[in-house]
């Protein structure tokens, strides 16, 4: 008896020590998969664990990611994309099949610790109009019914991730918060359903977007250590966007009789490129303040108990839609290859740890040939092709590579395409305008980097997707046209 008790005590102490050493403080993140050359899922899971993340949100039920998360100790929220809402809303049977394939199967066969199913992704965003107004709630109810039928009603909860534009304040202060008039009735129905089923509401809050949308927005108010004038709401002074925005939601919930409904912050973060305000300095400042709050378990004036906060995002995604802005591909705390972008202190633990075991394509780049002329008639089409299929968002005004000269701009575009196409020989031809070099063309004393892509074929574990790069016709075409205009303008001015 004594020896058994002593053994159990030693085991418990070892587990506790291991948890403290790894910094198990309940950090949560979003793992997006919109990449032309994604990191292998097993490497990403190790990256999360080594940096203290024990909760993750996926935007879709990706098989590779879910299998890698099996028996990892990481809690999972699985997302259902908006384009599936109509199908799931149309019949309970469709929802049952989805739950069986994407929830029950991974829990029973792979040991994935699935805690939430997120139905839709910001389906009531104003820019979507009424596209998902009539399918989100029926899909939510059908998924809940399917979870109950599968015997998972208590283990797995449903939620709906919503953008913060579903609520507003007519007085301009948090206490005036209420839900948008055009969706008020629908919101109350969904919230009542979540409350009746012991499920949380998920809200996405983006202080960066407040600054992006309004050039007169007080910049310091977006951060947690700023000097902007506070927003005074009665006896409460709000010094940052997160507190004010979150409490506007809480006021809306209180006004409608659901003041105690659990709330999750599903997305919040700061991008590092693609806009003058999207840089590593601002991202480090914001995310350090955010993680400090999480580690200190700090809530808001209206809710002292802090919510779970899922930072957006874990890794950059070079194939993500840029319809909202070029910054969309640069939200990661880590670069596309899992390297550290900037230092962060996650609660007195060791610094961020980069991904291990990443393999790259050959150390070579595609650049504009020294013999090629900037007046070549094939130049515009070549650049258009490159920036339609590859990521040129770092070339915009105020971005990390926005200060390059004309030839370097063209070389960046050529190399982005060359790497995206796995360094195929024909991917650096560009009508004889391109040439392969083994000398890194990245400018010195600059944050602009000419990347070398991950080698998808050299990892022992298959990557999340080996599909061709995703083409975003509208946004990519407009980006390419914009870049061509910049290049041609610079040529004219030479």
From TrEMBL:
Its EC number is 3.2.1.39. Residues 1-21 form the signal peptide. Residues 364-450 form the X8 domain. One of its GO terms (biological process) is carbohydrate metabolic process. It comes from the Eukaryota. The chain crosses the membrane at residues 475-493. It is found in: Cell membrane. GO terms for cellular component: plasma membrane; side of membrane. Pfam families: Glyco_hydro_17 (PF00332), X8 (PF07983). It is an enzyme of class 3 (hydrolase). Keywords: Cell membrane, Disulfide bond, Glycoprotein, Glycosidase, GPI-anchor, Hydrolase, Lipoprotein, Membrane, Plant defense, Signal, Transmembrane, Transmembrane helix. Its main location: membrane. It is a lipid-anchor; GPI-anchor. InterPro entries: GH, Glyco_hydro_17, Glyco_hydro_17_plant, X8. It catalyses: Hydrolysis of (1->3)-beta-D-glucosidic linkages in (1->3)-beta-D-glucans. Belongs to the glycosyl hydrolase 17 family. This is glucan endo-1,3-beta-D-glucosidase. The lineage of its organism: Eukaryota, Viridiplantae, Streptophyta, Embryophyta, Tracheophyta.
């Amino acid at each position: 008896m004594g020896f058994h008790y002593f053994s159990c005590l030693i085991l418990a102490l070892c587990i506790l020590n291991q948890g403290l050493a790894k910094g198990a403080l309940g950090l949560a993140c979003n793992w997006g998969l919109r990449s032309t050359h994604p990191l292998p899922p097993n490497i990403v899971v190790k990256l999360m664990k080594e940096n203290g993340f024990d909760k993750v949100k996926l935007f879709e039920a990706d098989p590779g990611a879910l299998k890698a998360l099996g028996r990892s100790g990481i809690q999972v929220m699985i997302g259902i994309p908006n384009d599936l809402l109509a199908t799931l809303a149309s019949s309970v049977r469709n929802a049952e099949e989805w739950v069986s394939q994407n929830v029950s199967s991974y829990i029973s066969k792979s040991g994935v610790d699935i805690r939430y199913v997120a139905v839709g992704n910001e389906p009531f965003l104003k820019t979507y109009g009424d596209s998902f107004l009539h399918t989100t709630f029926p899909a939510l109810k059908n998924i809940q019914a399917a979870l109950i039928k599968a015997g998972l009603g208590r283990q797995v909860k449903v939620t709906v991730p919503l953008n913060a534009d579903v609520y507003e304040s007519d007085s301009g202060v948090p206490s005036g918060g209420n839900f948008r008039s055009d969706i008020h009735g629908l919101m109350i129905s969904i919230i009542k359903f979540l409350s009746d089923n012991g499920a949380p509401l998920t809200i996405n809050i983006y202080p960066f977007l407040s600054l992006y949308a309004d050039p007169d927005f007080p910049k310091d108010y977006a951060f947690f250590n700023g000097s902007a004038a506070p927003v005074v709401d009665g006896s409460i002074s709000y010094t940052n966007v997160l507190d004010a925005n979150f409490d506007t939601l809480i006021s809306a919930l209180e006004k409608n009789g659901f003041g105690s409904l659990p709330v999750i912050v599903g997305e919040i973060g700061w991008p590092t490129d693609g806009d003058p305000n999207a840089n590593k300095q601002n991202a480090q400042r914001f995310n350090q303040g955010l993680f400090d709050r999480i580690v200190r378990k700090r809530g808001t004036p209206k809710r002292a108990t802090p919510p779970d906060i899922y930072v957006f995002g874990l890794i950059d995604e070079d194939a993500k839609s840029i319809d909202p802005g070029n910054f969309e591909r640069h939200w990661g705390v880590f670069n596309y290859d899992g390297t550290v972008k900037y230092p962060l202190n996650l609660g007195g633990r060791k610094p961020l740890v980069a991904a291990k075991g990443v393999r790259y394509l050959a150390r070579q780049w595609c650049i504009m040939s020294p013999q090629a002329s900037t007046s070549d008639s094939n130049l515009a089409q070549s650049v258009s092709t490159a920036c339609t299929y590859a990521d040129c968002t770092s070339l915009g005004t105020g971005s990390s590579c926005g200060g390059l000269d004309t030839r370097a701009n063209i070389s960046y575009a050529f190399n982005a395409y060359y790497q995206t196409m796995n360094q195929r020989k024909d991917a650096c031809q560009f009508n004889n305008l391109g040439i392969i070099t083994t000398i890194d063309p990245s400018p010195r004393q600059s944050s602009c980097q000419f990347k070398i892509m991950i080698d998808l074929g050299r990892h022992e574990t298959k990557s999340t997707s080996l599909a061709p790069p995703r083409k975003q016709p509208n946004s990519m075409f407009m980006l390419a046209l914009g870049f061509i205009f910049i290049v041609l303008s610079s040529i004219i001015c030479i």
